[in-house]
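#onboarding

Welcome to the new folks! Below is a worked example of what a typical request in this channel looks like: someone posts a single protein sequence, and someone else replies with the predicted structure as tokens. Don't worry about understanding the tokens yet, we'll cover that in week two.

Example request:
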Amino acid sequence: MSKFGSFAEYPACSLAGAEAALLTAWSSLNRFHADMVLVGGLAIKYLIKPGGTLLPGPVTLDVDLGVTIAVEGGQYGTIADDLCGLGFKRDPKGRYVREFEAKPVFIDFLTEHDTATTGTIDLEGVPAGIFLVSTGHWRPEGK
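Example response:
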């Protein structure tokens, strides 16, 4: 599913579905938290005050998690194992999806790479889209 051209096109339950997906997955991914951060549209929900702006507010259809390229779960399984154990399924494009609020909600992973600027890389069993950070380097504290 892609982004819509305007706020009005987003289904009313899309933010609730994305939040339900995050809350379902987040506690299971606790051993990865030091290498993971919420990014994208859902992060905006937690960064702005409700009604604090003239803009309509945050909208999203998915959960975007930024992950360091060095993420690892050790002997206790992978991110993919955890998501599958929670009922998420890998779709033909490699994205993890589960239905919330009667709509499919995807969990997408993004990472920064030292030399690549596009593409995907497998991190703990999930494909992470590579993005280019134009100012500085995005890395969690201490990495």
